[in-house]
Every structure is written in C-alpha cells, then in structure tokens.
Amino acid sequence: MPGSVDETRAAEYRPLLFSIAYGMTGSVGDAEDIVQDAFLGLTRARLAGTVVADQKAYLTTAVTRLGINYLGSARVRRETYVGDWLPEPVVVPAGGPGVGPAAAGPGPAEHAELADSLSMAFLVLLEALSPVERAVFMLREVFGYDYAEVAGILETSEANARQLVSRARKHVREGRPRFTVKPEQHRAALDRFIGAVANGDVNGLLGLLREDVVTYADGGGKASAALNPIFGADKVARFFAGIGKKAPATGVAWEIREAAGAPSLWLYLNGRLESLFSFALDEEGRVETIFVLRNPEKLDSIASPLQ
Questions:
Q1: pTM for the predicted model, two decimal places
Q2: Which domains does the chain have, with CATH numbers?
Q3: Measured by CB atoms within 10 angstroms of the end CB, which terminus of the chain is less buried, N or C?
Q4: pLDDT > 60? residue 96
Q5: In angstroms, rounded to a whole number, what is the distance separating the alpha carbons of residues 187 and 256?
Q6: How would you class 232 by CB atoms within 10 Å of its CB: exposed for 0-12, middle for 13-18, buried for 19 or more?
Q7: Using CA atoms, how far apart are residues 29 and 298, in angstroms rounded to an integer?
Q8: What are the phi and psi torsion angles at 305 (to 5°)?
Q9: How would you classify residue 32: left for phi > 0, otherwise alpha for psi between -120 and 50, otherwise beta?
Q10: Residues 6+ apart with CB under 8 A from 298
Q11: Residues 152-177: pLDDT tens digits?
C-alpha cells in the first residue's frame, strides 16, 4: 500500500531497534513503545509524501531521539520513586525469543554485540550517564556506528560526537568490571548462596561476599524492600540470613535461570515470582554487588512458570 512501511524490512530492523531502545531505557515495555512510535512516525512521513531513502537510518535516528526524550522525563519521575530503581531485565529462555521485541523476532540477548551489555550492573552503570552520553555510548561502543553516523543521528558535529563518546567511555570504564566470570563459576556461587540463605547461615554467606559488597533492592513502593543500599559483608550477610529464617516453611522455591545476560536467582512463593536476584562477581568469584528486583510490575513482565 502506498505510504506503508515495508513489513519485511520492519521485521529485520525491529530487534536492532529494540536493543538500542532497551539499552537506553532499561525497560522492556518502554523500549517496545519507543520502537512502535518510531515505526508510526515512519508511516506518517511516507503518507505525507516524504521520501525515506534509508528506512534503517530513519528508524535508528527516531529511536535514539525518542530514547533521549524518554530519559529526560524518566529522571524526573525517578526522583519520587520509592527506594532504589533497577532496570527491568531481559529474559531469553533457551530455544525461545524471550521477553523483548515482537514475538516473531529474536530478543536483544541474541545479538552478539549486546551480549556484554545486558547485565544489571552494566545497565545501572549507564544510569550515571547523561541521556545524550548514553545514546552515543550505545551507538558507538555497543553497536559500532561510526562517528559520522552518530553525529548525523544527534544532529551534531563529528568532533562533538567524538568528545561525547570519549566522555561516556571514561565514565563507563571507571565503573565497569575488568574481568568476566565464567557461567559455571557464576552458577556455583548462586548454588552456595541459595543454601546459605535457606539455612540462615551468616558465616556461609560471609564466605561468599566481598568485604565491600553492596545490595540494591527495587520494590517500587509496591513490595517490601530495603529503601536504601546495604553496604558491607556483615550487614548484607545478616540481611539475607534473616530473609531465610523468616521464609515460610512451605511454598518457597528457588531456581537458577538466565536473566539480564547472566545466571540469576528466581524466588517463587506458591508458584508466583516474588523476587529476582542478579549478582556481580569479582575475579575470585566473590559477590561484590547484589541487585534484588521485587517490584511486581517489573516481575510480572518476565514471570513464567517454574521450569
């Protein structure tokens, strides 16, 4: 139909566009909305008689600018958020597209270029960047756009684009881990963590944690969660041992599943997902950061039955 978007091309572009939008927003639902708005904008432009020679460039530009606008308003909203705000993790089950863009297309975790950028720790780190810095970092460092392309998307000079990328890269490099933990090492640490929490074993937990470990919890005012970060091995160990001691005698189930690009702990109560725990480990396999997602609105978007 005249003016309509090429649906075949749309299917090809959607996973990339979702990945950019998700990397900028940290929200599956908002990323999907941004991508949909970009496609609607393209359709309107074509119906108005605008010749769009490069649909991919048009849509990438639209998604990036919509993402920048989103981040500007999101930061205002998060000033009144109850407790710590954590990103909503992408979940890609084995053999399936997972939570992400259109069900027919692959999720962002299936993009090799985004594989290292899905972790909760990395997405939280990006929150420290300005909206424009976050945009240029995603485009240049994650997706490999050249400086001229980045400059065109942001309607700035190539020299300014280079400066923005350099500044963003410096911020990320200062906070990003300098090592990668193997999945089997990650899972082994989670197995030990489950056992220690279930037994209320403070000493067992202390053996897993770095002295400077930090725990962040996101309940969003809709579920009980620590309102402020918990610092230090002793406090964190006692906090989680207390959770284990207070847990109901029945109806509790733990599962290790992929979330946010790494093995994570899923806690179910009577079959309902109650909490999702993501961990950042150091080079020795000790836990240095724990992210606890308890906001039911975020959990409902990824909840699935026990496997």
A1: 0.82
A2: 7-175 (1.20.140.160), 183-300 (3.10.450.50)
A3: N
A4: no
A5: 7
A6: middle
A7: 9
A8: -60, 160
A9: alpha
A10: 86, 88, 218, 220
A11: 999 999 999 999 999 999 888 876 65
